[in-house]
Amino acid sequence: MPPAVGIFFAAAFGAVVGSFLNVCIYRLPRGMSIVWPASACPHCGRGLAWFENVPLLSYAVLRGRCRTCSGVISTRYPTVEALTAAMFALGWWYYGPGTLLAARLLFGCALIVLFAIDLEHQLLPNAITLPGIIVGFLFSLVVEPGWMASLIGIVVGGGVLWAVAEGYYLVRHEEGLGMGDVKMLAMIGAFVGWKLTLIALMMASFAGSLVGVIFIVSRRGGLKYALPFGTFLALGAALAATIGPGVLDWYLGFYQ
Ligand SMILES: [Zn+2]
Fold this sequence. Notes:
Layout: H1 3-27, H2 57-61, H3 76-95, H4 99-121, H5 126-140, H6 147-172, H7 179-219, H8 229-253
Helix pairs in contact: 1-3, 1-4, 3-4, 4-5, 4-8, 5-6, 5-7, 6-7, 7-8
Bound molecules: zinc ion (ZN).
The site of zinc ion has 8 residues, from loops.
């Protein structure tokens, strides 16, 4: 099979998976089942026909509106589908077919769902983070980072944020970080190991602080507007999983 064909099918499959991730993003925070019933318009509730459910194409053909009620379809749908398609295509090209590709793609899918849900609802569902910890650890038995690094990643990832959350609560008597963030970083640790987890945390904190400062300066508000840290963690983890090893080499290079 020519490489271009493989990449094309990976992208097409990714778009379909992205469509399912959209279902998870919409339904998980609302406590709805992700397998039943079939997709419906969120505005008028009409069930969608198969041709309204084709990833990316339907959105383009329908010009982002429901056929019945003309309700606006969120740009999140095509965005998530395109992002997932790109991730599958790039993953296929970079890793090639194999267990590591499966691990990385599952991890990426979990990050996309957590990113989107935290951004909208300030919520990181256990339904993603807890199975994610287990799945990440199971993959580490056969692929990088190896089970030991994965196990330390779970403990360090969860432990560091848990300590920060507890410390913040003791000092300020209010919740700064949720337990969702703690479980999410433990999941990241399970998939990429403790070293890259610390890189992910650093990148997330940096991006979060940067956006937080911009937010405070522009709105003149306090830090009361809790920023969805899970959203930044997802970005940090995605960066750590891809360019993280290079960053780590570069950073450690200073001490050699
Ligand atoms: Zn409608």
